[in-house]
Design brief:
GO terms for molecular function: DNA binding. There is one protein chain. The protein has 108 residues and is of the alpha+beta class. The protein has one domain: Aspartate Aminotransferase, domain 1 (Alpha-Beta Complex), CATH 3.90.1150. It is 33% helix and 27% strand. The protein contains 3 helices and 6 strands; from the N terminus they run αββββαββα. It has a 6-stranded antiparallel sheet with strand order 1-2-3-4-6-5. A hairpin with a 6-residue loop joins strand 1 and strand 2.
């Protein structure tokens, strides 16, 4: 999985949009005008932030070394995923789906 794969997957979601509110180095994917994935472009290692149910967030951090508390985010609700090859692309897509679904379900 690479930046383009993640970008394409996020943009394939209904009503998803790509924004650059923090400048050219971080792509923010939104639905209903709310962020569901932040993708920095200026890191050596591919990583991104996704929203997560708080209980699941803790569980994933304990189970997977590539899942960290959300960098520069509310650590209760956000995880940083380091794309280091330790988990499958399918699982990464599931985490993106979870984030998208959480944000999509919120009222505008």
């Amino acid at each position: 999985m690479n930046i383009e794969t993640i970008r394409d997957y996020c943009l394939s979601k209904p009503d998803a949009e790509e924004t650059l509110p923090f400048g050219p180095d971080v792509i923010v994917f939104k639905v209903n005008n709310k962020s569901f994935l932040l993708l920095p472009l200026d890191t050596e290692e591919l990583r991104f932030n996704v929203k997560c149910d708080p209980d699941l967030a803790i569980e994933l951090r304990e189970q997977y070394s590539c899942v960290l508390p959300g960098w520069h985010m509310n650590k209760k609700h956000w995880n940083t995923i380091v794309v280091d090859g330790t988990v499958s692309s399918k699982l990464i897509r599931e985490w993106i789906d979870h984030s998208y679904d959480l944000v999509k379900s919120k009222k505008k």
